[in-house]
Amino acid sequence: MVYDTEQDAFDVSLRYTGVDTVDWPEHPADLLRIDLPGLADLIDDDDAYAEALTRMVFGNTEIARFYEKAMAAAHTAAVHVRLHVDGPSRFHSVRWELLRDPMSNHPIATDSTVLFSRYLSSADWRPIPVRKASEQVALVVVAAPDDVGEYAPGGRELAPVDLIGERDRARDALKGYRTEVIGGGGTATLAAITARLQDRDDPIDVLYLVAHGALTEDVPLLFLEAADGRADPVDARRLVEAFQHLETKPMLAVLMSCRSAGAGTASDDGGALAGLGPRLAGAGIAAVIAMQGDVTITTAQTFAQKFFAEFADDGVVDRAVAIARAAVRDRPDWWVPVLFSRLRSGRTYYRTEVGGETWSSLALMMRTGRFTPVLGPGFADGIVGSRVEIARRWARRWQMPIAPSGKGNFAQVAQYLRVGRSPGEVRAFLMDYLMSDLREKRRRAGKHDLIAEVPQHLLEGNDPEPVILELGRLLRERDPDEPYRAAAALPVKVYVTTGWTDLLQQALRANEQPKDPVTLCFPWNDTVEQVDPHTLEPPTVAKPWVYHLFGRLDNPDSVVLTEDDHFEWLTAWIEQRPSIPPAVSASLMKNSLMFLGYRLDDWDFRVVFQGIKSFGGSSRLRANTHVGVQVRPESQTIEPEAAQRYLESYFGEDRVSLFWSATKDFLRELRANAGDGGP
User: Which domain of life is it from (predicted)?
Assistant: First the structure.
């Protein structure tokens, strides 16, 4: 629903997506009017409030008819009902969870077949990393200022916080999580919370925040702690700004109202926590659960325990909320917990298991030589940083007027840099950036950092590749699961890569059974030397080919950077088809392809994927199993279910297995599961 300020009403769009992914969109002609003053008059009568809200929404016959048709189409399957309210913050204070089914008159949000959430979207959101279910870490913050009783926002005196009780209830709800608790004695400060969330090496998955709140001119305040233990009323905008700048954000935030010792209810915060929910979601948190009114300790505790027990099962937040609501549906305050979500599927993490049939298939393909790894830029992330990171740094450095959602898009950022400059200048920027970044890392390095072991003379030069290769050597020696080391041990005749370095060739030569790789490069522009494929010896496992698709750093003019470069590459891929050695073509067309080191929304993956499909005999791809692996399975536009459907639409059902985890984790499991065919 989009608010029309001129007509003081909502313009409504309706959409139902069935299991076959086909959408039914409708756009009612009549505007939807929500009478806020009328609802405010009924605030103390839940039944009257629910009836009035239901009349306002389903009094629109087009909305009522669409809802009835959608529910009938769903049959007994669970239905995700997502309410998207795009309007002033005062409309988020509406108790939408009290909406009733116009036919049965029962609350929609307590129906066992309905997963109800408030859906939020924003162009400012950045991707959120997907993490394994086995690595869940919760940060519990209990703000218990010593002098909180001196505050009386809106004439409401704040009660002392039951610090011990809140800690115990939080720990009890978060069984199964590694839980850290801060609070009391001046520890629950905004700076302390932010500092802990900024730890990228040990990211927080769930933020469980217990605090007093208040609304001041529609802006939420949270009563956190100052360093001296006294209250620090924090404007929500400061908290939101802190979250916006986090590199790694929690996937879930739970905002609980404070209870005083011995109290049966939480103190009424005037809707402050519910008002903070959309703001935190807008700052990039995937899902936020907040209290939108008075809630009893019994309801809050039962809801939290049931929610986290269910949430741990599959990470589908709106399913867990629905089950938790069902557990408290007989209590008068069942509607108080509200879910704000930016997730289309409702899923916050993804299990990474690959079935036994997939491992068996991969082992067979490796034993018979029908297996081709396609290695992406993510293989070198641990050495040169990800291309997303490089793009964001460039966007900040040149103050590019690119939407926040596009600042991590390397091809787009490089394209912006290309405007008004020659292609050679952009590539010179890349080489200079890589060298400068490596020197800066050396300057800031501790004695145990790998780069501290790199000889100084390498860092004094202007070519980043010798430094990168030395770092690769050191990393392989230290880490037996280093991706290039693991990939080099595979029984493969042809490697295809969009990486720019010789890290793979170096790893092949250093393999336990040393190999002698042959380096080739696709001639997408006239700076790349064309090689007569008939002059080459056929590839073998002992002497494999490494075929670079997007150029190499030893020839910067061959590197594919900008959007224009990717389009030019696709054109060349079609026109220069005869220059592709038959062994490479066959490895892409006849073998099982394992994409490693990609995000499915990267330009690298999309262009290579389309290029492979463009081969004349691409229908043969459907005969094999393909495994997509992402180093960082994060995306603003593609979730795993959608990605699965996307790939299956080309390769056929049951021909694609997605492994949502780090590349090194996949390769480790491949070695463990592929038997004799493994490395």
Answer: Bacteria
Q: Which helix (H) or strand (E) holds 545?
A: strand 545-548
Amino acid at 133: A
Q: Where do the H-state alpha helices sit in 355-498?
A: 356-367, 381-384, 387-397, 410-418, 423-444, 456-459, 464-478, 483-488
Q: Cβ neighbours of residue 583 under 8 Å, at least 6 residues apart?
A: 493, 494, 533, 536, 538, 539, 545
Collapsing DSSP to helix, strand or coil, 351 comes out as coil
Alpha helices in 59-206 (DSSP H): 61-74, 163-173, 190-197
pLDDT tens track for 49-104: 999 999 999 988 888 888 888 887 766 667 778 888 877 777 878 888 899 998 88
Q: Which two tokens stand for residue 535?
A: 């002059």
Print burial letters for 435-465: b (CB count within 10 Å at least 16), e (below 16): bebbeebbeeeeeeebbeebeeebbeeeebb
The two three-digit tokens of residue 223, written as one number: 């009563």
pLDDT tens for 574-603 read 998 888 999 999 898 888 888 888 877 778
Radius of gyration of the chain (CA): 28
Give the separation between CA 186 and CA 54, rounded to whole angstroms. Answer: 45
Query: Residue 409 belongs to what H/E stretch?
Result: none
In eight-state DSSP terms, residue 109 is G
Tokens found for residue 230: 């006294």
Q: How far is Cα 661 from Cα 483, in angstroms, rounded to an integer? A: 13
473-503 burial, b at 16+ Cβ within 10 Å, e below that, comes to bbbbeeeeebbbbbbbbbebbbbbbbbbbbb
- The residues with which 657 forms a beta bridge, in sequence order, are 627
Evaluate whether 642 touches 634 at the Cβ level (below 8 Å).
Answer: no
- How many helices (DSSP H) and strands (DSSP E) are in the chain? 23, 21
- Name the β-bridge partners of 593: 372
For residues 609 and 601, what is the distance between their CA atoms, to the nearest angstrom? 11
**What tokens were used for 256?**
């609980």
Tokens for 482? 């280093």
